[in-house]
Amino acid sequence: xxxxxxxxxxxxxxxxxxxxxxxxxxxxxxxxxxxxxxxxxxxxxxxxxxxxxxxxxxxxxxxxxxxxxxxxxxxxxxxxxxxxxxxxxxxxxxxxxxxxxxxxxxxxxxxxxxxxxxxxxxxxxxxxxxxxxxxxxxxxxxxxxxxxxxxxxxxxxxxxxxxxxxxxxxxxxxxxxxxxxxxxxxxxxxxxxxxxxxxxxxxxxxxxxxxxxxxxxxxxxxxxxxxxxxxxxxxxxxxxxxxxxxxxxxxxxxxxxxxxxxxxxxxxxxxxxxxxxxxxxxxxxxxxxxxxxxxxxxxxxxxxxxxxxxxxxxxxxxxxxxxxxxx
Length: 327
What we know:
By secondary structure, the protein is an alpha/beta fold. It has helices at 3-11, 95-108, 121-132, 150-157, 166-173, 184-192, 197-214, 226-241, 251-254, 278-286, 305-318, 322-325; strands at 22-29, 32-40, 45-50, 71-76, 114-119, 137-143, 264-269, 290-295. It has an 8-stranded mixed sheet with strand order 1-2-4-3-5-6-7-8, sandwiched between helices.
């Protein structure tokens, strides 16, 4: 499938473009202000969208997975990325800061409970948020599950995925001396936080390029803009260096009982090379209220046609369940 045909297929599953009815910069403390927007129906079912990365930022396309007549869609850029400021900052920037930010957004907007929609790192954050505040999460819609475990980091940054893409892996490891390649996260950390902006941008583009190249089974996308890549790479590397700021490896699965009363659906690409399907499978095997939809010919990206279609199907199905979900 060529890129144009693929994009047309994806667009056919989305609602038409919409503009926000509310945009604001929210002071969350610690010197950070985050960008927040609302779209759709101000009286509709509230849903908060958690973007990936960490450091990816939200995009206008994320508004289009929800019927604007029925949903009140809240999107925001997490600390340090997108339109949030300070840009690319890792100070006071942890998983627990983000969980607190989500709660502050909810309280500021006067929302009691909401649907939580997130993919990749956004799925990680959605799970941690829901385990921390299960009474606030009415339903989880997750895509491309990442459980923030050492095994997942070892797969993607330790050469596992590189066995399938040796040419792209070689490009990723090439700037790193051989004696540092046993820990690529640490090697890139030294360069992404060197204090030399030029060096940081060069390595940020390589870091982002490795992930972008493996995101979809249909496309192998090009180089990211320097400013975006630097924020994305620095934040992602910061979180991975600190193992997501979790108390122990496997924490999400260890706390799965906290989701006993929180229903959800997981959409997973069968050929996801960034977040292998075993994580989504194990999650839904242990989470009685969670259901898994495995998409046969799809990778990791939100923009995969099969993933887009299934997410749209889920959000459409939830439209008539406001009373049951307590929304």
